[in-house]
Each structure stands twice: as structure tokens, then as C-alpha cells.
What we know:
By secondary structure, the chain is α+β, with helices and mostly antiparallel strands. It has 3 domains: 5-64, no CATH class; 73-86 and 345-432, Elongation Factor Tu (Ef-tu), domain 3 (Beta Barrel); 122-309, Orthogonal Bundle (Helix Hairpins). The protein is 45% helix and 21% strand. The chain has 8 helices and 16 strands. The protein has helices at residues 34-41, 46-65, 124-143, 164-180, 185-233, 239-309, 376-379, 435-447, and strands spanning 11-15, 27-31, 73-84, 88-92, 96-101, 108-109, 114-118, 310-312, 317-321, 329-331, 335-341, 346-353, 366-371, 382-389, 398-404, 423-431. It has a 6-stranded antiparallel barrel. A 4-stranded antiparallel β-sheet has the order 4-11-9-6, with no helix packed on it. Helix 4 (164-180) runs antiparallel to helix 6 and helix 5 packs antiparallel against helix 6 (239-309). It is elongated. It starts with 10 loop residues before the first strand and ends with a helix.
Amino acid sequence: MAINQNSMPTITQPTPPPQLNGHVPKKEVVIRSEAMQEIIDRKPDFMDKWAVIIFLTGLCLLFASTWFIHSPNTVEASAYLTASDAPKEIFSRQEGRLIRLWGHNDDTVAAGQVIGWIESTADHASVADLSIRLDSSLRLLADGRTNKVSKLFEKHYNHLGELQTAYQTFITALQVYNDYLVNGFYNHKKQLLKNDISSLQQINTSLLNQEKMTNEDIQLAEESFNMNNSLLNEKVLSREDLRQAKSKLVNKRLLLPQLKTTMLANEIQQREKQNEIDMLEHDLTQQNIIFQQSLQTFRSTIEDWEMKYVIKSPIDGVLSFVVPLQDKQFLQAGKLLGYVNPTGTQYYAQLNLPQNNFGEIDTGLQVQLRFYAYPYQEFGFVPGTLNYVSKVATDSGFIATIRLNNGLETNHHIRMQYKTGLKAKAVVITRNMRLPQRLYFSIAKAIRP
């Protein structure tokens, strides 16, 4: 077996010292391998001199960097999102093509403003114009300006599709209503009845005058009869003359019952004419009610049609679509198109705090909301502040609310879309400690007797 001489250990042997005065001194001879000699002869470089110092310095820096690592005490609970004056959703309630898109992202819209039209057999422009006229007619009826209602519907509509039948029914009711009010039937008939009553009143006045004169004539006849009766007693007048005077008195008295009968008949006729006027006004009221009901029914029919084929803004706010929309695009029924975000919306979260570590909970603590629909590692968390904690526990814990400091913007500056009842994990930071502090308290807790 061959032996590598380079790997052999160094052998030290005594060497003779130099001769002095005839004496030979002892001298050590050092024999080294080539590898060892190469190590001894090589000068140390930078890493050989500073490696330990660099390692110790890096270790110190690594330990110092742990001061910037936060390791707080937390209490976790389940929470859900809510808001005051929350954003409203916009849905497509009918399947079909979007034939016209009126609104776009970030547009400021008003409540009831049209955002889009969905394909229908009716002409959307005609229905919109008719809807405006119906609203105007309702205001005119409320103000009592009924004579101006018929002028709103002088225009005829022939492209209403499925609404055409309801339109014809409404026009029929309008024509009957016009006959009573606009065309003068009611006013003309009422005026005739009033004229008849006026004539009857004049006749009644004449009858009263006739009754007065008849009473005066009867009084004169009675005076003549009494005078003739006195003359008869004095033997100046015969009995025949007295009978004739009495006959004239009786005939005059018979006129009074006839006048009373005529006056009674006159009053009956006046009441009948007034009753006809009352019936006419009742009919007018009924026609007014029937027309208003027909108007409301037709308006409801148009509203039902608009619910299906017209996309409108439910509230005032800023329009925000969640899907790209364009003209001629096919929409599925019930599809969520976007939201209308009202100005001044206040978002907050409600949570149920467990009793564990509840003594550390107080208002003003910082909270991290990690929504399940938006993964925390990708979207970040929504920062908030605990602003209310109930003092009475419920079956599910203590109710608390969280004010969102930056709305629905995460710490990664990503804006989340509001959805009612969106669930999240709430991490309440009860004590904001750093990693060295946590290590210190952990060690102190472990060695504490």
C-alpha cells in the first residue's frame, strides 16, 4: 500500500548545533508536508480576518431588526359589514339585448334616471313620453285643473307593443271623461237644470204675490158681507142679495187652497230639479274617480313594463358597474350589473365579542377586518376602530361596532365593493407589542414561579 508523503505528519528530529570551540551544538530539524507548508506560507485574506466579526455584526443586526416586527396581543371574532345609506344594487330583471346604454362608470345619477334600455316589442321613446304625460295628468287632477288633462293625450301612440291594449282601454275611459267635462255635457245639462229651477222660483214668487192679493180680496169680500148682513137686519137688503154676497166670499176663499196646491207642486218641481243636479254631480264625481282609477291602472302597467325593460338608478349617487357593458350586449335575467354609491355613506362592521379576554377590550382599539371574499394575503385588511361595546352580553357574546377609518379601502390601497352582510374575521389589537417584547414577556412568564 503506497503512502502519500504529503499527508504524513511533520517529524521533528534533533539537529547538531554549530561547532563552537570544538563542541557541536544540538539543532532541531523541522520537516513539514507540502500542504501544511503551503498553508503556513499563504497570507490570510479579508474573509479570514473579518469573517467572525461580520457574522457577529449580522447577528446583532438581525436581532435589532426584530424590534420592527410587531407581534401584538389580539382577540379574534366574527364580523359582518353594514352601512347607513348603503349602496344599491342594479339588476337586469329581463333577459334580452341591451339596445341602449345611457350611463357609464363614475357618472353622477339621480334617483329614477334611466341607465339603459332592454329590448322589447314597445318603442322605449314612446313609452317614456307617454309616462311623462301620465305623471303630468296626475298632477293636474290633484290641482283641480281637469280641463287641461285631455290636451295631454291629443297625440296618438301606435308603437306600444304589449302596452297597446292597456292604452286603448285608457283612451276609452278618457273619451267618456271628456264627454262629461271637456265637451260640455255636464256644464250644459247643469245649466239647463239651473234655468229650470230659476223659472220655478219666479213662478213661486208670482204665486206668493197672487196669494197675498187673494187674501186682500177675501178680506174686502168679508167686509162687504158683514155690511150686507147689517143691512139685512135693518130690513134694507133682501136675503137674496145676502146669499149672493156670501157666494162671492166663498168663491174667493176657494182660491187659497188652489194656490197652496200650485205652490206645493212648484216646490216639488224645484226639489226634483235640484235632485237631478245632485245626481249629475254624483255622476261627475264617479266619472272622475273611474278616470283616475283608469289612469292609475295604466300608470301601474307602464311601471311594470319599465321594471322589466328599463334600467333605472334606485337612488342619487355615483354609478359603478361590476361588469363591462355596451350596446347590443345580451343580458341574463337577474344579473348584477353594478351599484349606485350614494354620497356620504358611512360603512361600519358589527361583531360579537367572546368573553375570553373581554377585560382587555375597550373602545378606541384598532381592528383589522379580513374579509373572506377578499383573501387577506392578496388584498390586505380594512383598518378600523372599535367605537362601541355593549355592556350587556347576549347569547352570542357582546355586541360591538367598528368604524372603518378609510371606508372600504384596504391597507394595500385596494377599493372593495360594498355588499350587505359581507363576512370577515375581526382581529382586535388589545396590546401592540414588538417581537423582542413578546420574547421577554414569554421568558419572564416561563421562569416566574
